[in-house]
Protein backbone atom coordinates (compact mmCIF):
# COMPACT_ATOMS: atom_id res chain seq x y z
CA UNK A 1 0.00 0.00 0.00
CA UNK A 2 1.55 3.37 -0.99
CA UNK A 3 2.36 5.74 1.86
CA UNK A 4 0.01 8.70 1.51
CA UNK A 5 1.70 11.80 0.06
CA UNK A 6 4.90 9.96 -0.81
CA UNK A 7 6.38 9.81 -4.29
CA UNK A 8 6.88 6.01 -4.77
CA UNK A 9 10.09 6.80 -6.67
CA UNK A 10 11.60 7.74 -3.30
CA UNK A 11 11.34 4.11 -2.20
CA UNK A 12 13.32 2.80 -5.18
CA UNK A 13 16.94 1.79 -4.57
CA UNK A 14 17.16 2.27 -0.80
CA UNK A 15 20.50 2.30 0.95
CA UNK A 16 21.15 -0.22 2.43
CA UNK A 17 19.53 -2.39 -0.26
CA UNK A 18 17.98 -4.83 2.24
CA UNK A 19 15.91 -2.09 3.90
CA UNK A 20 12.17 -2.14 3.19
CA UNK A 21 10.24 0.63 4.94
CA UNK A 22 6.94 -1.01 4.05
CA UNK A 23 7.85 -3.91 6.35
CA UNK A 24 8.64 -1.52 9.22
CA UNK A 25 5.78 0.98 9.25
CA UNK A 26 2.57 -0.46 10.73
CA UNK A 27 -0.01 -1.24 8.01
CA UNK A 28 -2.67 0.98 9.63
CA UNK A 29 -0.22 3.91 9.54
CA UNK A 30 0.70 3.26 5.90
CA UNK A 31 -3.00 3.31 5.04
CA UNK A 32 -3.60 6.53 6.97
CA UNK A 33 -5.20 9.49 5.24
CA UNK A 34 -3.98 12.41 7.32
CA UNK A 35 -6.34 14.98 8.82
CA UNK A 36 -7.11 17.70 6.31
CA UNK A 37 -8.56 21.13 6.89
CA UNK A 38 -9.83 23.88 4.58
CA UNK A 39 -6.68 25.87 5.39
CA UNK A 40 -4.61 23.25 3.55
CA UNK A 41 -6.23 24.63 0.37
CA UNK A 42 -7.15 28.25 1.21
CA UNK A 43 -5.13 30.53 3.49
CA UNK A 44 -6.62 33.99 2.82
CA UNK A 45 -10.00 35.69 2.82
CA UNK A 46 -12.55 35.83 5.62
CA UNK A 47 -11.46 32.77 7.53
CA UNK A 48 -14.54 31.12 8.98
CA UNK A 49 -13.44 27.53 8.49
CA UNK A 50 -11.68 26.39 11.67
CA UNK A 51 -13.95 27.45 14.53
CA UNK A 52 -11.34 29.87 15.82
CA UNK A 53 -12.42 32.76 18.04
CA UNK A 54 -13.03 35.68 15.64
CA UNK A 55 -12.58 38.31 18.37
CA UNK A 56 -9.15 37.10 19.31
CA UNK A 57 -7.74 36.65 22.76
CA UNK A 58 -8.57 38.85 25.72
CA UNK A 59 -5.25 38.83 27.56
CA UNK A 60 -4.69 42.31 29.01
CA UNK A 61 -1.57 44.22 28.04
CA UNK A 62 0.66 44.89 31.01
CA UNK A 63 2.46 47.79 29.32
CA UNK A 64 6.02 47.56 28.15
CA UNK A 65 6.81 43.94 29.00
CA UNK A 66 8.14 41.54 26.36
CA UNK A 67 4.94 39.55 26.50
CA UNK A 68 3.04 42.50 24.99
CA UNK A 69 4.81 42.00 21.63
CA UNK A 70 3.64 38.43 21.65
CA UNK A 71 0.04 39.57 22.18
CA UNK A 72 0.01 41.21 18.72
CA UNK A 73 0.60 37.87 17.05
CA UNK A 74 -2.44 36.11 15.56
CA UNK A 75 -2.85 33.95 18.64
CA UNK A 76 -6.48 33.16 17.80
CA UNK A 77 -5.44 31.39 14.59
CA UNK A 78 -4.21 27.81 14.48
CA UNK A 79 -0.49 27.65 13.74
CA UNK A 80 1.05 26.70 10.40
CA UNK A 81 1.03 22.88 10.30
CA UNK A 82 4.07 22.69 7.98
CA UNK A 83 6.60 25.21 9.41
CA UNK A 84 8.75 24.88 6.28
CA UNK A 85 11.01 27.82 7.14
CA UNK A 86 12.09 26.27 10.46
CA UNK A 87 12.77 22.99 8.68
CA UNK A 88 14.76 24.77 5.95
CA UNK A 89 16.92 26.54 8.54
CA UNK A 90 17.55 23.29 10.40
CA UNK A 91 18.37 21.57 7.10
CA UNK A 92 20.82 24.34 6.28
CA UNK A 93 22.48 24.09 9.68
CA UNK A 94 22.59 20.29 9.99
CA UNK A 95 22.68 19.08 6.37
CA UNK A 96 24.31 22.06 4.67
CA UNK A 97 21.35 22.74 2.33
CA UNK A 98 18.06 24.58 2.89
CA UNK A 99 16.35 22.62 0.14
CA UNK A 100 16.77 19.39 2.14
CA UNK A 101 13.85 20.46 4.39
CA UNK A 102 12.01 17.33 3.23
CA UNK A 103 14.41 15.43 5.50
CA UNK A 104 13.18 17.30 8.61
CA UNK A 105 10.19 16.71 10.90
CA UNK A 106 9.33 18.91 13.88
CA UNK A 107 7.95 17.67 17.18
CA UNK A 108 6.95 19.02 20.58
CA UNK A 109 10.44 18.41 21.92
CA UNK A 110 12.28 15.27 20.90
CA UNK A 111 10.14 13.50 23.49
CA UNK A 112 7.14 13.75 21.13
CA UNK A 113 9.20 12.32 18.27
CA UNK A 114 10.38 9.42 20.46
CA UNK A 115 6.77 8.44 21.14
CA UNK A 116 5.67 9.00 17.54
CA UNK A 117 8.43 6.77 16.16
CA UNK A 118 7.28 3.95 18.43
CA UNK A 119 3.65 4.48 17.43
CA UNK A 120 4.31 4.39 13.67
CA UNK A 121 6.73 1.43 13.70
CA UNK A 122 5.73 -0.91 16.51
CA UNK A 123 2.55 -2.93 16.98
CA UNK A 124 1.57 -2.81 20.69
CA UNK A 125 1.87 -6.15 22.45
CA UNK A 126 3.87 -7.62 19.56
CA UNK A 127 6.90 -5.61 18.47
CA UNK A 128 9.99 -4.66 20.45
CA UNK A 129 12.59 -1.94 20.67
CA UNK A 130 16.29 -2.30 21.50
CA UNK A 131 18.09 0.03 23.90
CA UNK A 132 21.67 0.20 25.12
CA UNK A 133 21.72 0.98 28.87
CA UNK A 134 22.74 3.16 30.55
CA UNK A 135 20.63 5.48 28.44
CA UNK A 136 17.87 8.09 28.39
CA UNK A 137 14.87 6.93 30.42
CA UNK A 138 12.13 8.03 28.03
CA UNK A 139 12.80 5.21 25.55
CA UNK A 140 11.73 2.71 28.21
CA UNK A 141 8.81 4.84 29.42
CA UNK A 142 7.42 5.31 25.88
CA UNK A 143 7.90 1.60 25.16
CA UNK A 144 5.81 0.76 28.21
CA UNK A 145 3.11 3.27 27.28
CA UNK A 146 2.96 1.67 23.82
CA UNK A 147 3.00 -1.86 25.29
CA UNK A 148 6.33 -2.78 23.71
CA UNK A 149 8.94 -5.06 25.20
CA UNK A 150 12.49 -3.77 25.43
CA UNK A 151 15.55 -5.81 24.48
CA UNK A 152 18.52 -4.41 26.37
CA UNK A 153 22.04 -4.72 25.00
CA UNK A 154 24.15 -2.88 27.59
CA UNK A 155 27.03 -0.64 26.57
CA UNK A 156 30.55 -1.83 27.25
CA UNK A 157 30.84 -0.03 30.56
CA UNK A 158 34.27 -1.07 31.86
CA UNK A 159 36.30 1.94 32.95
CA UNK A 160 33.51 4.29 31.89
CA UNK A 161 34.12 3.52 28.18
CA UNK A 162 30.38 3.35 27.37
CA UNK A 163 30.85 1.99 23.85
CA UNK A 164 28.42 -0.11 21.82
CA UNK A 165 28.66 -3.89 21.69
CA UNK A 166 28.00 -3.83 17.94
CA UNK A 167 28.15 -7.62 17.55
CA UNK A 168 25.71 -8.21 20.40
CA UNK A 169 23.30 -5.66 18.91
CA UNK A 170 23.48 -7.47 15.57
CA UNK A 171 22.95 -10.87 17.23
CA UNK A 172 19.92 -9.60 19.17
CA UNK A 173 18.32 -8.18 16.01
CA UNK A 174 18.94 -11.12 13.75
CA UNK A 175 17.52 -13.56 16.31
CA UNK A 176 14.37 -11.44 16.87
CA UNK A 177 12.70 -9.85 13.83
CA UNK A 178 10.10 -8.20 16.07
CA UNK A 179 12.74 -5.58 17.00
CA UNK A 180 11.73 -2.55 14.91
CA UNK A 181 13.75 0.28 16.45
CA UNK A 182 17.28 0.50 17.82
CA UNK A 183 17.74 3.47 20.17
CA UNK A 184 21.24 4.92 20.40
CA UNK A 185 22.07 8.12 22.26
CA UNK A 186 25.08 10.15 21.06
CA UNK A 187 26.50 11.77 23.09
CA UNK A 188 24.83 9.51 25.60
CA UNK A 189 22.79 10.50 28.60
CA UNK A 190 24.13 9.88 31.25
CA UNK A 191 27.41 8.84 29.61
CA UNK A 192 28.35 11.99 27.66
CA UNK A 193 30.01 9.65 25.16
CA UNK A 194 29.61 10.11 21.39
CA UNK A 195 29.09 6.95 19.32
CA UNK A 196 31.65 6.60 16.52
CA UNK A 197 30.06 6.95 13.06
CA UNK A 198 31.72 3.72 11.94
CA UNK A 199 29.73 1.77 14.58
CA UNK A 200 26.51 3.44 13.46
CA UNK A 201 27.21 2.63 9.80
CA UNK A 202 27.99 -0.98 10.66
CA UNK A 203 24.56 -1.36 12.26
CA UNK A 204 22.81 0.52 9.42
CA UNK A 205 24.34 -1.83 6.88
CA UNK A 206 23.67 -5.03 8.81
CA UNK A 207 21.27 -7.09 6.64
CA UNK A 208 19.92 -9.00 9.65
CA UNK A 209 17.97 -5.93 10.86
CA UNK A 210 15.07 -4.39 8.97
CA UNK A 211 14.08 -1.43 11.11
CA UNK A 212 15.17 2.09 11.97
CA UNK A 213 18.29 3.02 13.87
CA UNK A 214 17.47 6.12 15.90
CA UNK A 215 20.38 8.30 16.99
CA UNK A 216 19.34 10.71 19.72
CA UNK A 217 21.65 13.73 19.40
CA UNK A 218 20.08 15.95 22.06
CA UNK A 219 23.57 16.98 23.26
CA UNK A 220 25.34 17.11 19.89
CA UNK A 221 26.16 20.82 20.05
CA UNK A 222 28.46 20.18 23.02
CA UNK A 223 30.43 17.44 21.21
CA UNK A 224 33.44 17.83 18.92
CA UNK A 225 32.88 18.92 15.29
CA UNK A 226 32.18 15.93 13.07
CA UNK A 227 30.45 13.86 15.79
CA UNK A 228 26.95 14.21 14.31
CA UNK A 229 25.35 11.44 12.29
CA UNK A 230 22.83 13.90 10.75
CA UNK A 231 24.31 13.77 7.25
CA UNK A 232 23.81 9.98 7.17
CA UNK A 233 20.10 10.80 6.76
CA UNK A 234 20.75 11.99 3.21
CA UNK A 235 22.50 8.72 2.41
CA UNK A 236 20.70 5.97 4.37
CA UNK A 237 16.95 5.20 4.36
CA UNK A 238 17.02 3.45 7.75
CA UNK A 239 18.47 6.08 10.06
CA UNK A 240 16.63 8.73 12.07
CA UNK A 241 18.54 11.44 13.95
CA UNK A 242 16.79 13.24 16.79
CA UNK A 243 17.80 16.74 17.74
CA UNK A 244 16.33 19.42 19.98
CA UNK A 245 16.46 23.14 20.72
CA UNK A 246 16.31 22.30 24.46
CA UNK A 247 20.05 21.94 25.11
CA UNK A 248 22.61 23.83 22.96
CA UNK A 249 20.02 26.49 22.04
CA UNK A 250 18.81 26.84 25.63
CA UNK A 251 15.13 26.70 24.63
CA UNK A 252 13.77 23.81 26.68
CA UNK A 253 10.61 25.82 27.42
CA UNK A 254 9.46 26.14 23.80
CA UNK A 255 9.41 22.35 23.26
CA UNK A 256 10.90 22.05 19.82
CA UNK A 257 12.58 18.86 18.69
CA UNK A 258 13.36 17.48 15.24
CA UNK A 259 13.80 14.22 13.41
CA UNK A 260 16.19 14.18 10.46
CA UNK A 261 15.64 11.20 8.17
CA UNK A 262 14.83 9.97 4.67
CA UNK A 263 11.73 11.79 3.26
CA UNK A 264 9.73 8.54 3.38
CA UNK A 265 9.93 8.37 7.19
CA UNK A 266 9.37 12.14 7.41
CA UNK A 267 6.17 11.72 5.36
CA UNK A 268 4.94 8.95 7.65
CA UNK A 269 5.58 11.07 10.76
CA UNK A 270 3.90 14.08 9.12
CA UNK A 271 0.82 12.04 8.20
CA UNK A 272 0.53 10.78 11.78
CA UNK A 273 1.22 13.85 13.92
CA UNK A 274 -1.46 16.09 15.39
CA UNK A 275 -1.92 18.80 12.74
CA UNK A 276 -0.96 21.85 14.82
CA UNK A 277 1.72 20.40 17.07
CA UNK A 278 4.13 23.36 16.92
CA UNK A 279 2.62 26.47 18.53
CA UNK A 280 2.97 29.88 16.87
CA UNK A 281 4.95 31.45 19.78
CA UNK A 282 7.34 28.47 19.77
CA UNK A 283 7.74 28.69 15.99
CA UNK A 284 8.53 32.42 16.16
CA UNK A 285 11.15 31.90 18.83
CA UNK A 286 12.65 28.94 16.95
CA UNK A 287 12.98 31.05 13.79
CA UNK A 288 14.85 33.73 15.73
CA UNK A 289 17.07 31.09 17.34
CA UNK A 290 17.91 29.72 13.90
CA UNK A 291 18.70 33.14 12.39
CA UNK A 292 22.39 33.95 11.74
CA UNK A 293 22.55 36.05 14.93
CA UNK A 294 20.73 33.35 16.91
CA UNK A 295 23.20 30.71 15.76
CA UNK A 296 26.12 32.96 16.64
CA UNK A 297 24.72 33.41 20.17
CA UNK A 298 24.07 29.70 20.56
CA UNK A 299 27.65 28.87 19.55
CA UNK A 300 29.03 31.43 22.00
CA UNK A 301 26.96 29.93 24.83
CA UNK A 302 28.02 26.40 23.92
CA UNK A 303 31.66 27.53 23.98
CA UNK A 304 31.22 29.06 27.44
CA UNK A 305 29.55 25.89 28.75
CA UNK A 306 32.12 23.51 27.28
CA UNK A 307 34.94 25.67 28.71
CA UNK A 308 33.22 25.55 32.12
CA UNK A 309 32.76 21.79 31.76
CA UNK A 310 36.51 21.35 31.28
CA UNK A 311 37.21 23.67 34.24
CA UNK A 312 34.85 21.62 36.45
CA UNK A 313 36.55 18.39 35.39
CA UNK A 314 39.94 19.88 36.27
CA UNK A 315 38.65 21.09 39.62
CA UNK A 316 37.11 17.73 40.57
CA UNK A 317 40.44 16.05 39.69
CA UNK A 318 42.40 18.12 42.24
CA UNK A 319 43.36 16.65 45.64
CA UNK A 320 40.78 18.97 47.23
CA UNK A 321 38.16 16.57 45.82
CA UNK A 322 39.99 13.29 45.15
CA UNK A 323 41.16 13.13 48.77
CA UNK A 324 37.53 13.39 49.84
CA UNK A 325 36.54 10.43 47.65
CA UNK A 326 35.62 11.80 44.24
CA UNK A 327 36.69 9.37 41.51
CA UNK A 328 37.81 10.14 37.96
CA UNK A 329 34.89 11.25 35.79
CA UNK A 330 33.24 8.53 33.71
CA UNK A 331 32.24 8.70 30.05
CA UNK A 332 33.10 10.99 27.18
CA UNK A 333 32.36 14.41 28.71
CA UNK A 334 30.93 15.61 25.39
CA UNK A 335 27.65 17.02 26.69
CA UNK A 336 26.66 19.82 29.12
CA UNK A 337 27.10 17.59 32.17
CA UNK A 338 29.71 15.47 33.88
CA UNK A 339 29.35 12.06 35.49
CA UNK A 340 31.27 11.64 38.72
CA UNK A 341 31.65 8.52 40.88
CA UNK A 342 31.61 9.05 44.64
CA UNK A 343 33.95 6.60 46.36
CA UNK A 344 33.93 4.94 49.75
CA UNK A 345 36.61 6.73 51.76
CA UNK A 346 37.90 3.48 53.27
CA UNK A 347 37.83 1.12 50.30
CA UNK A 348 38.16 3.59 47.40
CA UNK A 349 35.35 1.72 45.61
CA UNK A 350 32.29 3.47 44.10
CA UNK A 351 29.76 3.92 46.88
CA UNK A 352 26.15 4.44 45.79
CA UNK A 353 24.90 4.84 49.37
CA UNK A 354 27.34 7.65 50.04
CA UNK A 355 26.47 9.22 46.65
CA UNK A 356 22.77 9.09 47.54
CA UNK A 357 23.45 10.74 50.92
CA UNK A 358 25.48 13.49 49.25
CA UNK A 359 22.76 13.98 46.62
CA UNK A 360 20.12 14.39 49.35
CA UNK A 361 22.25 16.65 51.51
CA UNK A 362 23.14 18.88 48.54
CA UNK A 363 19.47 19.29 47.65
CA UNK A 364 17.95 19.53 51.12
CA UNK A 365 20.61 21.31 53.14
CA UNK A 366 22.76 23.13 50.62
CA UNK A 367 20.40 24.29 47.87
CA UNK A 368 22.12 22.47 44.99
CA UNK A 369 20.21 19.87 42.95
CA UNK A 370 22.20 17.37 40.90
CA UNK A 371 21.05 13.98 39.60
CA UNK A 372 21.69 10.66 41.34
CA UNK A 373 22.58 8.03 38.71
CA UNK A 374 24.02 5.34 41.01
CA UNK A 375 21.37 2.80 39.98
CA UNK A 376 22.24 2.98 36.28
CA UNK A 377 24.31 0.24 34.73
CA UNK A 378 28.05 0.98 34.95
CA UNK A 379 27.37 4.12 36.99
CA UNK A 380 27.79 2.80 40.56
CA UNK A 381 28.17 5.72 42.97
CA UNK A 382 27.59 8.29 40.23
CA UNK A 383 26.16 11.77 40.35
CA UNK A 384 25.41 13.61 37.11
CA UNK A 385 26.10 17.32 37.36
CA UNK A 386 24.84 19.76 34.74
CA UNK A 387 27.26 22.57 33.92
CA UNK A 388 25.80 25.79 35.34
CA UNK A 389 26.69 29.46 35.05
CA UNK A 390 30.12 30.49 36.39
CA UNK A 391 28.51 31.63 39.65
CA UNK A 392 26.40 28.47 39.99
CA UNK A 393 29.45 26.29 39.39
CA UNK A 394 31.45 28.11 42.01
CA UNK A 395 28.73 27.71 44.64
CA UNK A 396 28.18 24.07 43.63
CA UNK A 397 31.89 23.26 44.05
CA UNK A 398 31.96 24.86 47.50
CA UNK A 399 28.79 23.10 48.70
CA UNK A 400 29.93 19.82 47.14
CA UNK A 401 33.15 19.97 49.15
CA UNK A 402 31.24 20.70 52.33
CA UNK A 403 28.94 17.73 51.71
CA UNK A 404 31.93 15.44 50.99
CA UNK A 405 33.64 16.54 54.18
CA UNK A 406 30.55 15.75 56.19
CA UNK A 407 29.80 12.26 54.88
C1 LIG B 1 19.03 12.08 25.45
C2 LIG B 1 17.85 12.96 25.52
N1 LIG B 1 16.98 12.93 24.52
C3 LIG B 1 15.89 13.71 24.54
C4 LIG B 1 15.63 14.55 25.60
C5 LIG B 1 14.37 15.35 25.60
O1 LIG B 1 14.52 16.48 24.84
P1 LIG B 1 13.33 17.46 24.50
O2 LIG B 1 13.42 18.57 25.47
O3 LIG B 1 13.62 17.88 23.10
O4 LIG B 1 12.04 16.69 24.60
C6 LIG B 1 16.52 14.62 26.66
C7 LIG B 1 16.27 15.51 27.81
O5 LIG B 1 16.91 15.55 28.79
C8 LIG B 1 17.65 13.79 26.62
O6 LIG B 1 18.54 13.78 27.63
Automatic annotation (TrEMBL):
Keyword Transferase: yes
Domain Aminotransferase class I/classII large: 46-399
Keyword vocabulary terms for this entry: Amino-acid biosynthesis, Aminotransferase, Histidine biosynthesis, Pyridoxal phosphate, Transferase
One GO process term, biological-process aspect: L-histidine biosynthetic process
One term of GO molecular function: pyridoxal phosphate binding
EC primary class: transferase
InterPro entries: Aminotrans_II_pyridoxalP_BS (IPR001917), Aminotransferase_I/II_large (IPR004839), HisP_aminotrans (IPR005861), PyrdxlP-dep_Trfase (IPR015424), PyrdxlP-dep_Trfase_major (IPR015421), PyrdxlP-dep_Trfase_small (IPR015422)
EC number in record: 2.6.1.9
SUPFAM superfamilies, alphabetized: PLP-dependent transferases (SSF53383)
CC cofactor: pyridoxal 5'-phosphate
Superkingdom: Eukaryota
Xref: PROSITE patterns: AA_TRANSFER_CLASS_2 (PS00599)
Pathway annotation from the record: Amino-acid biosynthesis; L-histidine biosynthesis; L-histidine from 5-phospho-alpha-D-ribose 1-diphosphate: step 7/9
Reaction(s) catalysed (UniProt annotation): L-histidinol phosphate + 2-oxoglutarate = 3-(imidazol-4-yl)-2-oxopropyl phosphate + L-glutamate
Pfam families: Aminotran_1_2
Family: Belongs to the class-II pyridoxal-phosphate-dependent aminotransferase family.
Name of the protein this chain belongs to: histidinol-phosphate transaminase
Amino acid sequence: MPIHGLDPALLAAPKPPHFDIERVIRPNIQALHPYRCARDDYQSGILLDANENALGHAIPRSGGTEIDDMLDVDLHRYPDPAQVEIKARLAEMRLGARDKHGHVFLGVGSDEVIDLLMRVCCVPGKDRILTTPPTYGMYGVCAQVNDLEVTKVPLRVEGGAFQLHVDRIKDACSSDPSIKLIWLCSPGNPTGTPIPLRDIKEILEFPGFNGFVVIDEAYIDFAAEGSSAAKLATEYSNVCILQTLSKGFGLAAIRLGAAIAHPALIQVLTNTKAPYNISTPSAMLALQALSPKGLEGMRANVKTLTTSREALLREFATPAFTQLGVGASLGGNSANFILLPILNRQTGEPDSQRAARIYKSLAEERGVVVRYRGNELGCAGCLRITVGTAEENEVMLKRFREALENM
